[in-house]
Design a protein that fits this description.
The chain is an alpha+beta fold. It has helices at residues 2-7, 25-39, 66-73, and strands at 10-14, 56-60, 87-93, 96-103, 106-111, 118-122, 127-132, 139-144. 20% of the residues lie in helices and 33% in strands. The strands form 2 sheets. It has a 4-stranded mixed sheet.
Length: 145
Amino acid sequence: MKKIMKQVNRIVIFLFLLTSCSNGIENDLYVLVEKQFRIDNCNVKFSNIIKEDWDSFYIVSEFIIPIEITDEIGIEYTGEMVKEDEYRIIFIYKNKIIKEESFFISRIIIENEFNSGITKVSRNDSFCCEFVDVLEPSYYVLKKQ
């Protein structure tokens, strides 16, 4: 599956969705996309739900090592390699890593023009969204406007 996704230049955001209530950012992101999709499928903005101060966040796919993360985000990353079947979101504010979380189940795909395994989302980015329910679980595909 990863090879297929690389071929179409997409980075998968795996959201950690447990049947027992998750209050992490991964659940908040999915809820935001779902709500905004119903209102206006071409105005999905992560800044509407992430109220903390942040300039950008990066979605890092599996098997990416710290030096690759450092090179991409321009800030020294001292965390661990992203493990198999794990994805990581890293928030940046004023050139500092302020938060990071790891998560798993695929529910959102952000199309990416590059194939580095790391996708950047800036605070002012806006996305068009498409709901796909062909496979289980259903998911959203976001394209940067």
